[in-house]
Amino acid sequence: MTYEMKAVFWGVLLACVDWGWGQENLTFDGDVRDFAISDRSVYVVTDDRLYQLNHDFTKVIKRDTPNVVYPKQEAPLSNETYPFKVNILLPFIKNKTLITCGTTKCGYCEILDLNEISKSVHSENIEVGSLDPGDSTIGFIVDVGTNSYIMTGRLQSRVRKACANSDQLLDLRNTLEGQHGGIFSDSDESTTPYIDARQKEKFQFVDGFQSNSHIYVFSNVPQERQVRVILFKSENSKTNTLRHFQGATLKCCGNTERRELLSSSVIQGSGGLHGQVLWAGVFTAGNTSDPINTVLAIYNISSTGPQLKYNDPDFCYKGCAEALPMGTTQDLHPEAVVFRYSSMTSVLAVRHNSWLVFFIGTGDGQLIKLAVDKAYKPACPRVLYNSDDDRRVFPKMHLDPVDRKHVYMALRNQMVRVPVAQCSEHKSLKDCWSAQDPFCGWCESRCSFQGDCLQPSAWISISEDSQQQNMVSYQVEKSSSGERITLTVKVHLNVNGTGSLTFTCNFFNKRGDLCDRTSPAPAFPQCSCLFSSDQLPAEGLNVTVKIRVGKQNLAEKLMLTNCSDISGPPTSALCSQCMSAGCSWSNDVCSWTTRSANSEPIQDVCRLSQSGLNYSEPVIFSIEPSVLSFHGRNHALMNGENLDHVTKVRIQGHMNCSLKESPVWNHTGSSLTFHIPSGDKGSVSVCAVLPDGRCLGKATVTYGSSPSCTGLTPSTTWASGKRKIKVHGSHLEFVEEVVHDHAPQTIQTKYSSGTLWYHTPPFEHINQPVTSTVSLRVANQTLACSSQLTYHPDPEFTSYTAIKTGNDMRVTIEKRADKLNITTEEILVFGVQEENHDVECVMDTIETSNETDSVICEIKNTPNFNINSLRIRVGNFTKILLPKQAAPSLLIILVLIPIIIVVIVGAVLYSYNKQRKMAAQMNKQLDQLECDIRNDIRQGFVDMQTEKCDLIENVGAIPFLDYKHFASRIFFPDGGPVMTSCIKDIGQPDESCQALSRLIRDQVFLTSFVHALEEQKNFNVKEKCAVASLLTVSLHGDLPYLTQVMEELLRALMEQPSNSQPKLMLRRTESIVEKLLTNWMSICLYGFLRESVGQPLFLLVCALTQQMSKGPVDSVTEKALYTLNEDWLLWQAQDFSPMRLQVLFAVGTDGEVSEPLEVSALDCDTVEQVKEKILLAFKTKFGFPYNTPLRQMHIEYEKDGRFVPLKEVDASSGVLGEVTMLNTLKHYKVPDGASIKVLSKTHPSLSPQSSLKDDQNYSTKYFHLIDPDIDQDQKKNPERKKLKLKEVYLTKLLSTKVAVHSFVENLFRTIWGTPNLKTPPAIKYFFDFLDAQGESKRINDSDVLHIWKTNSLPLRFWVNILKNPQFVFDMEKTPPLDGCLSVIAQAFMDSFSLAEKQLGKHDPTNKLLYAKDISQYKQEVRAYYKQVRDQPPISSSEFKEFLHKESKKHENEFNESAALRELYKYMQLYFDEIKLKLDQNGAPVELKEQLQHVKSLFDSLKSCSWN
Fold it and tell me: Per 3-state DSSP, what percentage of the chain is helix, strand, and coil (rounded to 5)?
């Protein structure tokens, strides 16, 4: 009988696929009951569906399964339900079908298409597996002769009366219709062979498989609760196969018997036709509290002893009632126990070369990988997957049969595909080897799987012997005569590949080759070097061993020591020192290695060495907490005795792997505090570390799952906080604190009886509901809750009434309805008398309604108690509440009614008249507003159309800074004492500076010095720039050498792995050489800057300054009406008028004045701005500055024949709130053409006046053109309250651009022009250098070279000059000028960009302003780069001559001794690191001696200065 299957469709249905860290996860709508895998698909069964997935879970087919139907006669018990269960799921690869059997009715089986489960090939009702869902079933394909059968094992059902149930425990069923009896038949030619069990209650099948011609079935049998294996020999028929079987009992393991098998796996490839069959099983003792409750053991099951015929104690052929009496079985013991854990649930074994690799699933949701060598010695386990919760791993796991690089496992309702290794993460041979992963090996230039390494490349992996700490180990042996020493080096590698293997070793010391000619030839994996014992000095011998394995080169630096000199108390530290030196340790003494010395790992040899120091042995009583999340725990407490000398706490994982140590504090002798670091789930051992290195005492800590927060009760709180919130979730006992995203502080939690709760923090200044994210803090991890907490405003209690009821008082409090759902337990109410005597009001109930809630409480046994108010407390919120006022009498109401009517009528009439007036006034204001905006827009249009470039071009002498001050500002842009010392007068250099100067002129030393400094993590960018500039000053007199060093460092920078993206090269200044390049460009281009670029740059600066002065500039914010930068646009400016002032300068002390100087100003200028314009006009006209600085100037305005002092602020200044308005010419009513007299501070009638800008609060105490944000009466100053729109004033940006455009273009074209068709030598030379580097690195992308050149010249030099003209000229840069120059610099850099971006209305105006010009500029830049490239190259000698001239030209400009002294500070700080780098670079001994000599000279200098 068949049944209809429901819809089959593609897509991920009720499932979610997640890819992360190389894993694919798929979540189903029900728990996974079974799964299987074929070459193309993964098949997954849940209670309701069968899924077909491709191997990476990206395609899913779903097939619904039928409902369970039980016969009416034998329905299940009324209080039990039996979900549908597929009990057999077998991909029959040979036949391209999927065999499924299940529990519908009296059982059914169906054959589906292996590649398309929607296609049913055959189905029938038949009992093949166990019908009851709680009973176990086994099923797997076996080959018997030329036929394939299903070996099935099942138990009888509780509904046997309704279903034709047989007693067959194990049988063989057909897979094809053409076999005798038809498909699924269990009969043979003349009989129905099967295996029965003597006792079936609690019988459990675990696993079964076929290896060559033998079939194995594993089960847990109830008789004495033991694990059995029975073995069948595949014969020519079902009968002959089942009739003769052997059996054995699997014993496990050691002192504690583990009598139950949970999961097993055959180790494929371990047999061969007559070889041994290795099998691994997970056994349990059934004690879940035992940290080693489960073990993984390896058995040899090739033979189970003599044949027992029919008297097996548990199994029999056909009916057990007729069988012979019970016999005995052979006991099988494990070859090795390789892993112990609290809760293993599954295992999958894989053989890889000589290694066995086990993938172990656990009850707490981990997948652990364990490699075991051929001697059954396990390596350190590694966690490949870790679930956040305690999802139990399904007992069955599968290896991907196609790529053999992924493991499939099931956890509750999830399928996970996990990579067996992450080889590609390792970037070097050493890293690849250090991973100690049998799957990973080094192939050419990458770490890969062996199958990914193509022939004839060699695949270099870890050696096949036991695990090693180092890839290269060595031993030293002294001959019996003592005259010769043998150094033996061994590489712990395994090489797979075709062809002969190249293996060479070369031994070097500082004098060259170390070995005698009598040294034997190298033979993989080891080589030896013989040399005279005279070559081993007392202080030891540094030896470099260069090894070549195939195409891979290794270099090891060894420090050989006289083994006899390593002596002292026999500590583990001394043992490690001895073994690390290649010596031998025995009987607690270090000695020369003998030929018979073993090669055990250091940790094994030195583990038992004792300390010679006298410390009391610590004893650990307990650790609190001892169970925690895998995230770790802060502030754990260790209790014990003799803990005084403990320095660290050591946490060791399985088999002493993954060792971690944590510092300790708060010693008391009997306790200490420490942090428990994060770890993998499971139990780890803890011991206390003493100063001598011993780790004593023993305790156990168990890592559990991560806490999860699934909900909060209640889900709301009030703004003042302190509401008690209960957290729902799992593993909440591991939570340390709670954090709200709106509050910076952490909140302590309370945990008791399985409940976690805390009090909410306050949320200030809220008047509407606000959500806050709640997170759990576990160690250093923050885990967000899945639901949020909503903050509402504090509850609003409005009034109360109190009614006496006998001796009690019943109080009813009115509260506005809210969504807080406050309970009676959360409210405290106290009645307050006049004498401040409080009495508690006991809460009764809370009655809720739509608008008002009533809180009812009672004050008990207070007959004479009267309350004046209530004090209500809800968490941190407290409210003093007054009683509700009594209702007025009827008479008063009757009197008030007519009065109220009269008042209302009068108010209506008054309001009507006022509204008419207000409407008329509003219409008038709207008309005025419209008129103002029209005028502003019209004025902007007029400005754009009439703007002329009438800015003055004759600015007199250009105030260039001299070279020394220009260069120092480039080298040290932040100034400071270092810059000052480098440009002050030059003294006579002392001997120490001369020696250091000679030392840095050695290129090997200087490059080693630079690289050593840059490798230090605490050496920051600021220090790198300082060192670069100090080197520039120190080597300024030898520019050819400085150039040579810079080129070498640039090549090294390009070779760094961090610069794998060539387009990012030289983009920032993050290294010494990049700052060197900036300085070098500044030195070489100073002549070009001064002769060609200086004048157009200065004219541009003057043009911008003059254009800004045409319009108002706010003195406080420094924003200007005329600017290029929207951020500095003064769009709030009021109307202004230009003025011409006649300025008179006081001469002498008798009141004489000079001829008048005409100065342009604006009526909105402040007094300080007028002074600035006077000084600028004076300097422009006369070519030199006025002899009195601005701060010592005083100006007066001539009014009616007398002079009135003009001050920034005086008694007449306007004030808004507490902010004072700066006085302007308009404030003083100074007319156009007025006379202004300038006095100096030295004038006898004048008192000193400091600047207001010295005030720290200048910007908050004063305002100028931008009003402070203070409400004010519009009538007082209607002009200042006109509505201003920023967008109307954007035209001022364009007006400014038009005014200065010719200056900008002149500057740009001077920079990228080529005067006399010849580029400055430095640019040509350096661009050719970059082209050469690109060619040597085979960079064919022209864009890369364009970017390198742009990053080197425009970005590194010209933009710095454009944005900082004060580096070139003697001038000050104001903020509004800086804003304009930033826009121009941005346009300059956009001209060099290769990106073509289409700008739109949402782009910043700073970009839009020059958008149309950029395309033309880009063409000019490309032409410029091409012109430089096409020019004939400058020869090395010509460029050296140019550099010599530059050095000579600026000779003695800098104090090189000061720079060298500063440089030595860095050398002194990193002296050891510099020495080490010199050793690594093979520096000659003389150079290191020279370095030591310099140190001695400076040290003696320091000593002399102290004396």
Answer: 30, 30, 40
1458 near 984, Cβ under 8 Å?
A: yes
Helix axes 1094-1109, 1375-1390, angle to 10 degrees: 130
DSSP code for 202: T
Q: pLDDT per residue over 337-352, tens digit each?
A: 999 988 999 999 999 9
Backbone angles phi, psi at 432, to 5 degrees: -65, -40
Please state, rounded to an integer, the average pLDDT across all residues of the chain.
84
The β-bridge partners of 357 are 350, 371
CB 261 within 8 A of CB 248: no
Measured CA to CA, the distance from residue 1456 to residue 1462 in angstroms comes to: 10
In this predicted structure, what is the pLDDT of residue 1244? 44
> What pairs with residue 211 in β-bridges?
214
Q: For residues 1159 and 1141, is the Cβ–Cβ distance under 8 A?
A: yes
Strand 1157-1162 relative to strand 23-27, pairing = unpaired
DSSP 1420-1476: HHHHHHHHHHHSPPPPHHHHHHHHHHHHHHTTT-S-HHHHHHHHHHHHHHTHHHHHH
In a 3-state reduction of DSSP, which class is residue 835? Answer: coil
Instruction: Find tokens 């013991």 and name the residue.
Output: 333
Once rounded to an integer, what is the mean pLDDT over residues 222-243? 88
CA–CA dist 949, 1102 (Å, integer): 13
Distance CA 1107, CA 1111 (A): 8
Instruction: Please state the rounded mean pLDDT for residues 561-571.
Output: 84
Residue 938 tokens read as: 């019209």
CA distance 217 to 151: 9
Helices (H), 1189-1254: none
**Are 570 and 588 within 8 A, CB to CB?**
yes
Helices 1039-1055/1436-1449 angle, 10° precision: 120
Residue 172 predicted with pLDDT over 50:
yes
- Rounded to whole angstroms, how far apart are CA atoms 277 and 264? 13
Dist. CA 343–CA 391, nearest whole Å: 12
Question: In angstroms, how far is CA 997 from the centroid of its own chain?
Answer: 44
The Cα 533–Cα 517 span in angstroms is 15
Supply the pLDDT for residue 865.
Answer: 77
| Predicted confidence (pLDDT) at residue 1356 exceeds the cutoff of 50 | yes
Cα→Cα distances 939→316, 347, 942, 1113, 1409, Å: 111, 85, 5, 18, 20
Give the Cβ contact number of residue 746 at 10 Å: 15
Best CA proximity match to 261, nearest among 347, 326, 198, 200:
347
Strands 214-221 and 204-211: antiparallel
Among 22-26, 83-87, 1474-1478, the range scoring the smallest mean pLDDT is 83-87
pLDDT tens sequence across 51-78: 999 998 888 888 887 554 444 434 444 3
pLDDT in tens, 792-808: 999 999 999 998 888 88
pLDDT bin (cut points 50, 70, 90) of residue 682 is: confident
Query: CB–CB of 299/250 below 8 Å?
Result: yes
